[in-house]
Design goal:
The chain has 232 residues and is α+β, with helices and mostly antiparallel strands. It has three domains: 91 residues, Ribosomal Protein L25, Chain P, CATH 2.40.240.10; 84 residues, Beta Complex (RNA Polymerase Alpha Subunit, Chain A, domain 2), CATH 2.170.120.20; 35 residues. 20% of the residues lie in helices and 36% in strands. The strands form three sheets. The protein has a six-stranded mixed β-barrel. Strands 10-7-9-12 form a four-stranded mixed β-sheet, with no helix packed on it. The N and C termini lie far apart (74 Å).
């Protein structure tokens, strides 16, 4: 069970364009909603907000403490950032009941790629198709990440699906069971390897390579003439 992160907040009266003045003062506007209650416009010191977000991420509950001591358990739902600087512009927090399950995305972390038999000798590479997965759990049971062990992937085209993952107690898959988390695919063949004909014993067949190259040169010459003609 994760420990809650706390954040001191105040009621915000500045709205719209006035929020720019708040940000210049090192204060970030935030919004709290959910549990069939009225939404609240709040504000928080930017440095404290950044520290809380680094610790909580998108999975650990954040307890918002209002002036006067009232506490509300929330989870981070949306983080709006400046398109150029990346600075946090606004954050949405959703109220949660700690006894009720919520659905939230959790990051996926792959391990054991190099130990997978299907990648031995460069035969294939592990390709990650999903970077987070939707789970269902009580707020304090939501894990920081789901670890995916790839060491058992034995051959090319081996696949790990969402249904194959192991979840901690109290955590269940909320998304599609058939989502492809990762798979092994063969490495790409280079164009040079395609152009060189190889015999049964692995030797390069003489003459054929020269003919192929010569043909390419003729094509390039022709293409160049057409390009000049068009320019003229």
């Amino acid at each position: 069970m994760a420990d809650a992160v706390t954040l001191n907040v105040e009621v915000r009266t500045a709205l719209g364009k006035k929020n720019r003045a708040l940000r210049r003062q090192g204060i970030t506007p935030i919004h709290m909603y959910g549990l069939a209650q009225e939404s609240e416009t709040l504000q928080v010191i930017e440095s404290e907000l950044r520290a809380a977000l680094r610790t909580a991420g998108r999975t650990t509950p954040v307890t918002l403490i209002a002036t006067g001591g009232a506490e509300t358990v929330t989870i981070v739902r949306e983080i709006a950032r400046h398109a150029v600087t990346g600075d946090i512009q606004h954050v949405d927090f959703q109220r949660v009941d700690v006894q009720q399950e919520v659905e939230t995305p959790v990051p996926l972390s792959l391990i054991g790629q190099e130990e997978a038999p299907g990648t031995a000798g460069g035969a294939g590479v592990v390709t990650q198709g999903m970077f987070d997965i939707l789970v269902r759990a009580k707020p304090f049971d939501v894990p920081n990440e789901i670890v995916v062990d790839c060491s058992g992937m034995e051959e090319i085209d081996s696949v790990i699906l969402a249904i194959d993952l192991t979840f901690p107690p109290g955590v269940a898959l909320a998304g599609s069971e058939d989502d492809r988390v990762c798979w092994i695919q063969p490495p790409r063949v280079t164009a040079e390897e395609d152009l060189v004909p190889v015999g049964e014993e692995g030797e390069i067949l003489e003459g054929e390579v020269g003919e192929a190259v010569e043909g390419d040169e003729e094509s390039e010459d022709t293409g160049g003439s057409e390009a000049v003609s068009e320019e003229e």
